[in-house]
Amino acid sequence: MTHDSRLTTFVDTHTHLYEAQFDADRTAMIERAINTGVSKMIIPNVDATTIKGMLDLVQQFPTNIFPMMGLHPCYVKLESYKAELEIVRQYLFNDHKEISNLQSPITNSFIAVGEIGLDLYWDKSTLDIQKEAFELQCDWAIEKQLPVAIHSRDSTHILIELLKKRKNKPRGVFHCFTGSLEEANEILKLGFYVGIGGVVTYKNTHLRDTLKHLPLDKIVLETDAPYLPPVPFRGKRNESAYTKLVAETLCSVYEKGLEEIADVTTQNAKDLFDI
Question: By CB neighbour count within 10 A (0-12 exposed, 13-18 middle, 19+ buried), where does 94 fall?
């Protein structure tokens, strides 16, 4: 039996490569991921300040890095969210009218609307405007025929209900899922994928047990780097190369080999994001 020497390839469907934690070695870190087999990395935007760094990386690694565009719920602030949403709209719809003050080129290359959603861990007082921003960005995603990447910290149940009530539902992924089996099943009923990252490697998580009841063809891999590093890197900086460690944990959950985990989750990412 001959050994297949090709590199097993993965997609990191959610990674913040522009963050300051990578300033000292960003290019080396990305090349390390590519050399580990993480051939494609998808970067969510969080607010207007991260657009330039994100698009610079897309230009530097055009076959490896793919951008999303959206306003993260933690950056939905009463004094600025309408202006922030207008910037997101201008980028998504390639609208040049009021964009001269932005430092980045307009691009049509956004593959998703994200990172959007709700966050009730950091600030419950902005829930109403977080909902408003989420609904509007879902509308834009449907209009642009793009998936959404949903942030759902302490708010998964609320987001599920909001999506259920919508006449027109977007497709997409609940990123960094750590919820219950009941929530996971509701997410699957909505036609969404489940994003799994470093938390699945943690000793005290229930996530591995939950995943045993979920089909692999609805799972995508992610890191959320530089946050939520997997074991054995807890307490350190996460990076996209560690996508492979998430995949290795899924091998034990699904009792499948690394090649199959990689192939299925990569195909899932391709189906969802059209990359």
Answer: exposed
